[in-house]
Design brief:
By secondary structure, the protein is an all-alpha fold. The chain contains 18 helices and no strands.
Length: 357
């Protein structure tokens, strides 16, 4: 396991879903009403790729509404197109009034969610909270806006703020997978493992294909294991793969499958899901380091060095992570590269001691 970077806990950043049929404000006055409604339903199921297909303009379509565009950008932000989607969402917000706190608009809410969720996925919680709270104001009847804010507070372990946010989401949509998952996490953090799984299982009884609930179930299986025995790891892998059926381009799910295989020392098999995760999220340093480590464990040290150098170009801040590069260089018999990596590690350690990056 790579220390200090990506852990099983990082999947607290579950992808967002909004239940079909939730009241989203005024009807869309455009030619794409029906397509937008279908896209909402697909987003509710976590089927972002399907939602985007619904929103492709048909021949003769005079143009999509702002809401259709915002939903499309939101779906794209859950794939390797995240950076482009965030730029598009910011442009939509500028075009529709900028960034004031009090504008009401479903389209703006989805655009704000796109921006805020991307920041959350990058671990920038304070930066994420602003746009997510503005999304609440823009569309207070949209369950996912409340769940999004609740999740930020949950990551901070601020349960007194997270709980009412999840409750508000569930009042609007009792089947909101993200809110159910959030509450299950709260039960788990309260050391009530039985209640956490009961909540997830009840949610899955209503929506057996919900990828967010399967995703969270897999993570809690891992967290709830005193030791990562093969049976528990297999159960977790199955949960992640069930989520992947609906979200095949979710990099975190591929990472988690890879981790369950790697922990069982199935390194040759683990390489593929880690490679897929990197392809889907190429700017993520931790994913590249994980792939480099796994390639080394599979005795593919040449490829491992290439991946580690790619991670280093992006910036490896944690001195512990440099140990993987040092190990790879040693195995390849590359003393000059090993020396360079040790120097980088020492510099990272000094930055840590000074309280900087």
């Amino acid at each position: 396991m790579i220390r200090g970077r990506t852990s099983f806990a990082s999947v607290a950043s579950w992808a967002i879903a909004v239940a079909a049929g939730v009241a989203l404000g005024a009807p869309v006055a455009s030619a794409d009403d029906a397509a937008t409604a279908r896209a909402r339903a697909r987003v509710a199921a976590g089927d972002y790729l399907g939602a985007r297909k619904e929103l492709v303009p048909s021949p003769g379509d005079p143009g999509r509404s702002d809401l259709a565009e915002a939903l499309d950008l939101y779906g794209a932000s859950k794939t390797e197109l995240r950076d482009d989607a965030v730029r598009g969402a910011r442009a939509l917000l500028e075009r529709t009034g900028g960034f004031p706190k009090n504008l009401r608009s479903d389209a703006r809410a989805w655009a704000l969610l796109t921006v805020g969720e991307a920041l959350f996925a990058e671990g920038k919680l304070r930066d994420a909270l602003g746009p997510l709270e503005r999304a609440q104001i823009a569309a207070p009847d949209l369950a996912v806006t409340h769940a999004a804010v609740g999740e930020v507070h949950l990551r901070w372990r601020q349960k007194k703020y997270a709980e009412p946010a999840f409750e508000a989401a569930l009042r609007l949509d009792p089947r909101c997978g993200r809110a159910i998952a959030g509450q299950a996490w709260m039960r788990f953090l309260d050391r009530d493992r039985e209640a956490a799984f009961a909540q997830l299982d009840a949610g899955l009884a209503e929506r057996p294909d919900d990828p967010f609930l399967h995703h969270t179930r897999g993570v809690l299986i891992l967290f709830g294991s005193e030791s990562f025995d093969a049976e528990q790891l297999e159960l977790a892998e199955k949960a992640f793969r069930k989520a992947m059926v609906v979200q095949p381009r979710n990099a975190e799910l591929h990472t988690m499958v890879g981790l369950t295989l790697s922990t069982r020392r199935r390194h040759v098999e683990a390489v593929a899901p880690f490679q897929r995760a990197v392809k889907l999220d190429p700017s993520n340093v931790a994913r590249r380091i994980q792939l480099a480590r796994e390639l080394g464990s599979a005795n593919r040290f040449g490829e491992a060095l290439v991946e580690f150098k790619a991670a280093a170009k992006l910036d490896i801040a944690d001195p512990d992570d440099w140990e993987i590069g040092i190990w790879i260089a040693k195995e390849l018999g590359q003393p000059d590269i090993e020396k360079d990596f040790r120097a980088e590690q020492a510099a990272a350690q000094k930055r840590r001691e000074k309280g900087g990056r």
